[in-house]
């Protein structure tokens, strides 16, 4: 009985890990910094990355929870810090990633001294990089997160004007494959920024985690399968504008018009008898198979259940 319980728990963890993913290394030039290994014992691990428990989006679904900051309930660093010069490139590598579509967002926060004992609380975070819809429509286009599915890496440039000091760097993937149910995947790492920069972001560019997102933003309260998503060729990335490297306040963001409420035309014609599968068809980008999966395996019209490893299949 104990063996069966342990086996089931292990299988569940493997399935969760196979379906999602997190940053596992950071590269600066020829230097590779090891990230946290969430499914290994914390004993003896030392990393520039804040430790986090796993890839389960349910852990960070509440936008008012501290978990949205670095995918942990306020756990601090383990004593390691990376080094990067202002103006240099930082490449994050994900252990694995299967979700399409997804937006990519990168934030930084200045630590008041050593980052190792700093939780990252307060209105201190500024955005240095983001990307969403690259081309095509929201429903069937190419997204920034597709590059991570294909190459598992994302490269950002540290602002050349940024004043030196200790910073937290936060990478976030925002998976949008489920209608009105986005999934957040953030991880944070500790870096010392060097160089001759002198500029700090203005207060107007700063946000807090939690606090940066309300859940009502058009890019979060988002339906990938809506009629508008079939036509829209832009995507409103949530959060502040990317900081431009100056001490000036960012330009105001134009408000996004709300989506029109769809109406249904009712006629007197007798409806034809539909033919339906024995279960509710899985929406585009939803899970349709894999070990330990017990849901519907029928995809909506126009999509096919495609295998992504033994533990995860997706309607694409």
UniProtKB/TrEMBL annotation:
It catalyses: [(1->4)-beta-D-glucosyl]n+m + reduced acceptor + O2 = 4-dehydro-beta-D-glucosyl-[(1->4)-beta-D-glucosyl]n-1 + [(1->4)-beta-D-glucosyl]m + acceptor + H2O. Has a modular structure: an endo-beta-1,4-glucanase catalytic module at the N-terminus, a linker rich in serines and threonines, and a C-terminal carbohydrate-binding module (CBM). Residues 1-19 form the signal peptide. Keywords: Carbohydrate metabolism, Cellulose degradation, Copper, Disulfide bond, Metal-binding, Monooxygenase, Oxidoreductase, Polysaccharide degradation, Secreted, Signal. It comes from the Eukaryota. InterPro entries: AA9 (IPR049892), AA9_LPMO (IPR005103), CBD (IPR000254), CBD_sf (IPR035971). This is AA9 family lytic polysaccharide monooxygenase. GO terms for molecular function: cellulase activity; cellulose binding; metal ion binding; monooxygenase activity. It is an enzyme of class 1 (oxidoreductase). Lytic polysaccharide monooxygenase (LMPO) that depolymerizes crystalline and amorphous polysaccharides via the oxidation of scissile alpha- or beta-(1-4)-glycosidic bonds, yielding C1 and/or C4 oxidation products. Catalysis by LPMOs requires the reduction of the active-site copper from Cu(II) to Cu(I) by a reducing agent and H(2)O(2) or O(2) as a cosubstrate. It comes from Ophiobolus disseminans. One of its GO terms (cellular component) is extracellular region. Its main location: secreted. One of its GO terms (biological process) is cellulose catabolic process. It is found in: Secreted.
